[in-house]
Amino acid sequence: MNQLSTMAPSRAVLPLLDSEVLRTFVTIAESGSFTRAAQQLFRTPSALSMQIKRLEETLGQTLFVREARYVRLTAEGEVLLGYGRRLLKLNAEAVTQFLAPTIEGRVGLGITDDVVGRILPTVLAQFARSHPAVQVDVVVGRSKDLLAQLDDGELDLALVMSVEPGQAPRGDIVHSEPLVWAGREDGVAVQRTPLPVTLAQQGCAWRRIALNALDHAGVNYRIAYSCDHCAGQEAAMLADLAVTAFPKSLIRPPLKRLHNESLPPLGDYQVALVKRAGSGDASEVLAERVVEAFREG
Question: In this structure, are residues 161 and 112 in contact, taking their beta carbons and an 8 Å threshold?
Fold first, then answer.
């Protein structure tokens, strides 16, 4: 007798997750409603409900908590959402590799230094895999300078900070987060009078927000250090020479968010994606990757 025929498998064959069902699940999770998801997918809510029921039966887990008008993910649903997004992205990359028309050329991407580390490695890696024939030229600079280069045709896309008051908004908002006061966690700079602050040069949204807040609160301050790059402002904080207004997500030990009562609240700041008209298919695809990176990050 063939010995292999008598051997039992070490474990049962695992079921495969259907990409369309995953798309349904992700759409419901992101919209928070079966009704809104059905409108986006051009299906009926009952059809989506049946898909989710079968998915829950396959995985043996409850994925959504149904409330009166909304649905929210369970802990197991949160885990599946991360897998679902990655699987759908990988599926799209595989299909694009074989079916999408070859895109060639050059894309000029302008980006501020506070955004570089957040999304650029992921965006460039994904774009290079799906469109290896496209050259991406990245320029890191101030929002004002990047917009000028975009208007001159030197860039196709630009990720910039929110506009100054009185200026017409440009582009689409792709990211928003709190701007907070930051300094060294064991530092004393925040206790000094006048308050030493480190800021970028004129034209920076963070500078405008910080100075407006300090002036409105009547805080006695002095601009001790100026640098247009986050690394320069971080250096001043690490040396405990100044504090600054910083995005909450960029604060890493030994820096910390400051909760001193004398420091006024700052509110949020926004990042906008601005496209040059007629910049081509490659820039459109890269823009989609940028939006996805912010949404998932």
Answer: yes
